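Sequence in, structure out.
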Amino acid sequence: MKILVLNCGSSSIKYKLYDMKDNSVLAAGGAERIGIEGSFVKVTLPNGEKKKIMHDMPEHNAGVKFVFSLLTDPEIGAIKDLSEIEAVGHRIVQGGDKFCHSVIVDKSVEDGIEELCDLAPVHNAGHLKGIRAVNAVMPNVPQVCVFDNAFHSTMPDYAYMYGIPYELYEKFHVRRYGFHGTSHRYVSKRVCEFLGKDIKTQRIITCHIGNGASVSAIKFGQCVDTSMGLTPLAGVMMGSRSGDIDPSAVTYLMDKLGKKPQEMAEFLNKECGLLGISGHSSDMRDVSDAAKAGNKRAKLAIDMYNYRIKKYIGAYTAAMGGVDIIVWTAGVGENQMDIRWESCKDLEYLGIKIDEKANQTRGEEAIISAPDSKVTVCVIPTDEELVIAQDTMALVKK
């Protein structure tokens, strides 16, 4: 069974085509600058080479059509005909409290995603465009939505509620939802397979640390807390997101900077975090290089970043009454050994001890804790697209 996985943003379409016989990736790429001058698609060829193809894509329908044409291209394509694609799976950022599981797309699902656009206006609107674009090209192919926050739907109410009048939750659905759920779900399951453990007996802290970052507490296979909130802005400090901040600091800055609510949201999402503190970059690699070269603000940004991750590890250990496994994943978590080391440093009192030599690993499954560490610390590369493909196949076959 061949399944296409799409992640459609406001001006982008990322895609992977899977052969589910062996979970192999037949094709992968991404369309960028949709609706903007200079749009193009980056394609990863079977030999690993990347090719950039310029193409005018004024809207998502044109983008999806061009992606499909590349999939069937005689020279660089992976299939001969679109009929070989038996289903399409979509990543949906915000399912709110309407969708706790992956679902096959129908009119009610589309309506539900649209109703949630207020909670994720950029993301959900882009996802809807992708669903409708696929339907326009291949109307008879089943589509499945996999929601980014669904894994976190097992959080107890005392963990996901905010301390605001309850009627506001009932009326406006204001609560903690969490994100990166598909990644947290994948790595928590995979680490137990890797270690030969039963997930129903393990207390796991998963650290999805990339340009966007979140930490989750997973007790006996179910998420009990996560660092992101109503939106992906909350929690640990990120590449360009502030992370947790006093709400009064937000209103104070709005007044001082003369910003409207949406302008302030844009500021906190795009001009803060590593970028705002270092004044250098939102990319951890760049900030790390600057810190090593003696840039004090870059060093401060990294110290803040590590400190906040460490606080969440401590908090979630307390929330679960202990921890058995810590997982590092995503771009920074998988590749930045110094971030892993500093974030776990001085946590020996919790039974967490990193092996300096074992920690010298990038992008591979590995145990990086010391032999005498009571907590097993691992690096597990994430694979959100594979989870989406697997959910899609399961629902379509069902």
